[in-house]
Amino acid sequence: MFQLGPLTVRWYGFLIASAVLTGVLLSQFLAKRRHIDPELVGDLAIWLVIGAIPGARAYYVLFNWETYAQHPDQIIAIWRGGIAIHGALLGGTIAAGIFAKLNRVSFWQLMDVVAPAFILGQAIGRWGNFFNSEAFGAPTDLPWKLYIPPDSRPWAYRDFEYFHPTFLYESLWDFGVFALLIVLFFRSTNGKLSFKPGTLFLIYLVSYSLGRFWIEGLRTDSLMLGPLRMAQVVSLLGIILGTAGLVWLYRFDRSLPDVVKSGE
Fold first, then answer.
1. Which residues lie below 8 Å from residue 244, measured CB to CB, with a gap of 6+?
2. Which region holds residue 191: left if phi is over 0, alpha if psi is between -120 and 50, else beta?
3. Residue-wise over 82-91: b if at least 16 C-beta within 10 A, else e?
């Protein structure tokens, strides 16, 4: 992005930082509408960052271990790209669960507030892939094709110049999911809809996973476990768990088991 003496600011890091800041401000705004202390959500944001960023990097490194085993000095070089959203979600969710228990607040109410911030942050952060020429798909001649520099192309596609901009597909999908969650959030806040705690987070889990599943099938740089694309496996698991949670809430008229109930 720019360099000032020994300080180098990279687009990837700038966009991740922007996504975090935007998510914090949005979640605090939404918390007020749900009569949740915004300062509490601000404290939660620190926990989410502590859990999400290392989780995202560890997930990526784990499934690229053959490369990083040969270059261990690159394991923490997050500014060069290489984070996995599913790792961030897992790390952030674990951190949120610990935070909720320590502060004796409802985990699911917190997750409903931060879910729109999660997906908005993902939509913004995906543009870091554009500046790093990564997370693109198979070769294509579509009008919105993306030029990839030769040194960023997979060896098997070294003779192709234009590829599917899958980072863009996912960013647009994420913005759509964000719009859906915001509409549902305010309709429930205004009393036009009534949702049980955890509903918005489960809708986020299902809707994001649906988009990620088909977009991942277009990519050429997927993290693999044998013949399986890990993002598709995890997305399928997210669809199943999210759907099962919604069925549990509304078909069987139950509540999700909380980390700790508010007031305990």
1. none
2. left
3. bbbbbbbbbb
pLDDT of residue 262: 41
Task: Report the alpha-carbon distance of residue 125 to residue 70 in Å, rounded.
Answer: 28
Identify the CA nearest to 88 among candidates 123, 118, 131: 118
CA 98/CA 262 separation, integer angstroms? 14
In the predicted model, residues of the chain with pLDDT beneath 70 are 79, 81, 258-264
Q: What is the pLDDT of residue 5?
A: 84
pTM of the model: 0.89
> What is the SS3 assignment for 143?
coil
For residues 133 and 156, give the distance between their C-alpha atoms in angstroms, rounded to a whole number: 16
Task: Find residue 4's DSSP bridge partners.
Answer: 7
Domain ranges of the chain: 11-250
